[in-house]
Every structure is written in structure tokens, then in C-alpha cells.
Fold this sequence. Notes:
By secondary structure, the protein is mainly α. It has helices at about 1-30, 60-70, 90-100, 120-135, 140-155, 155-165, 170-180, 190-200, 210-215, 220-230, 235-250, 255-260, 265-270, 275-290, 295-310, 310-320, 325-340, 340-350, 355-360, 365-385, 390-400, 400-410, 415-430; strands at about 50, 55-60, 85-90. The longest helix has 28 residues, at about 1-30. It is an enzyme of class 2 (transferase).
Amino acid sequence: MLSAFRNRKAARNANKIKKLVEVEVDHDQVTIPELFRCPISLELMKDPVILSTGITYDRESVEKWIYEDGKRTCPVTGAALTSLDPVPNHTIRRMIQDWCVENKSYGFDRIPTPRAPASSSQVSEILARMVAMRGKGNAEGVMEMVVKIKDLVKESERDKRCVLSNGSARVLSETFQAFSYHENQENARVMILLEEILSGLTLILPFDQETESGLWSNKSLRMIVKILKLGTLSGRRNAVLVLKEILSSDRTKLQEFAEVERSMEALVKLINEPIDPTTTNASLLAIYHLVTPSTSFNQKKTLIARLHALKLTEKLIEMLVDCTRSVCEKVLGVLEALCSNEEGVKRAYTNALTVPVLVKKLLRVSDVATEFSVSILWKLSKYEKSVGEDEGVAMEALQVGAFQKLVLLLQVGSSLKTKEKASELLKGWNLVRGRVECIESMDFKNLKRSF
């Protein structure tokens, strides 16, 4: 009985496979009329549109040609376009739909009628209603409008451009600012709305100056930090993405964010308790902008001291053991900045993982990662000399093949500052090279060396 059941099941599966193969073969045997093919992609058009030159294309292909590739001519005729807005070709679309229905047996499904693209009047009406409801403090009504804006942005690149051109980012930031002033910030509906606005803002990066001005108010910054600490996972993710954007675009406002209570703790928490690589990258970039050389000396000194108290240096070194290329570059960038004072370099120097992981990153990740690694090794070596310690950094680095890597670095090229630091390290390490050295063979597999 069991054998019979297995035979029937095998026969059914064989029939299914046979039907699939038949459909694929028949599909290949059907010739799509040239009139229905996009001249750019040569595929069956799903949303045929006409350019000002009278030629019909698939919307996705021609909008990529115009807006992403920056072309202002007709792909077929080469004539200049008098208008960049394609017009739907309803006649061809209906013909394609009828043809798909007729050839359904060959595996062609009827192409659905595309949604009409967003218009400026439609977007303006949504924004006007959002502003009106914002004035009344109607969080639920504003939420509905925010969702509509998000849906338009996600619909297509054309709708996204339409949303942006009508000032949606500015209205969203002003709305975030307005609801951040609510006294009852524990109101669950308000918190959900604020997270939804941040979600919408992440879809329309980068921000213009007007958008940023609404997010730079003291109340807005405090609310962003609050969401970083207490929001949902998606809310915290969107908050740090928005924060990273505004910190990178206006360096004069860094002090205002740093003065928000427990702002640095909120960023470090996202690194200690990662949500996803995107969130980790954004958190590291935000911290990097706060502690890079453009920051005033006293401000930078205070911020780095706060990060040391949070044991960020130790966490970053631990992350270097196993992280992606993108995360590695940012970790090294922040770590290099933290090693700019004595406390930071001391913490790195006393960590047993520091030298081995830095040498491992040389020439393995990227040019940026290599430059940061050389800079940190140089700072460690300088610190060791200043405190009168033995040549521990040199001996440990030589054991894992640092000398050969630095020599190769000078040969393949790097920035002038990196070459100077590498040369200085080589001169110092060469004095102890004869006592201890071990080449990491995997780093030089298939490499012809002259040294």
C-alpha cells in the first residue's frame, strides 16, 4: 500500500515537471511582436509610454535613461527631447494586454494596468492636509497622510521625484518638530507617529537645508535621542539613519547633539546591541563625525572621554576580529580617532587583540582600512616609546608579518602621510627584525616579492 502511494506521488510530480517544461518550451516558441518590445530593453513592455519624439518605450527603461543616466535625447532617433515627461500609450498597452490574453496558454499572463503616476496637485493636497491636521494636534490624521507619502515614494522613481519636488521632506521635518514639542511625549500614538515620520524621511535622503533646520531644534534632537534609546527596532534604526545624515551635512551643529543628555550612550548602545549592519554602520558614522579633526579640540576631548567611559575602544577592537568590509572601515576610523589622546591609545595598547587584528587588516580590506590601521600602529609605537616600555608592539607586529606588509604598501602606493608613517615604523622595527619575525604566508600567497 505504501509502495502504491509513493508511485502515485512520483507520477504526479513527474506530470508537474512535464507541464512546466512544456510551458517554458512553448513560451520560447512564441514570437513577441516588435511593436510590443521596448527599443531599449527589447523586452515585452509593461507600461508603454511615448516620448516627445513619438517613440514608445517601457516606462522603467526610458525613465532610467532620462533620470539615472542623465540623457536628454531620444534613445532611437537621437533627437533632443522637448519634454522629459513620458505620456502613457494606452492604445499599445491595451493591445499588449489583449495579446497576452490570447497567448495565455503559452505562459503569458495579462499585464495589469499600471497605476497612474503621482501628480504635483495630488502630493500638494496630501501635504496641505498634513499641515492642517498638524495644527489641530491630530496625530492619527497626520499618520494617515505620512503613510500616503511613503506609499508614493515606494511606488516608483517618478513618484518619488514628484514627492521630493513638492517639499515633502521639509513638511515631514516640520511635523516631526511640531509633535516633538508635545508635553505628553509618553503618548503612544505620538511616539508611533514620530517613528513613522522618521521612516518616511529615510526614504527621501539626502536632506536639503530647510529639512535639516526642522530636525536641528533642541526638542527634535532630544526626541531623536529618545527614540534611539526607547524606540522600536525599526524606530531606532530610522532615527540613527536620520541622525547620521544631519551630522554629516552640518558640522556646526555637532555640539548641540552632544549636549543632549545621554546622546552618546544611545549611539554606543546601538553598537553594543546591534540591530542590523545598516544600523551599525550609521551609528559608527555618526560617532566618527563627532570625533573627527574638524571638531573643536575641547569638544573632541570631552566627547572622546565620554566614549572611553563607555568602553567603546575595547568594543571596537573586539568587532575587528570578525566584521564586514564596510563595518571594518568605520570601526577603524572611529578607533583611530579614539587613539588621538593618551587614554585612548593606552586602552588600545593594553588590549592583547589590538596589534594582531590591525596587522591582519593591512592590505586585506581596503585602502581606507589600511591607512587607518597604519595610523593606529604608528600611534601605538609612539606611545610605547613615550612610556619607556620594551619593543612589544614591534615584536608582536613582526611575528604576524607586519614588516613585509608595510614594505609592500610602500611599493603599491598609498597617501603621503601613510607612507611617512609606514617608513617610520619600518625604520624602528628593522632594529629588532633579526630577533623575531614570522611571515603570515596566507597574506602573500602567489605573490612575487623582491624582499
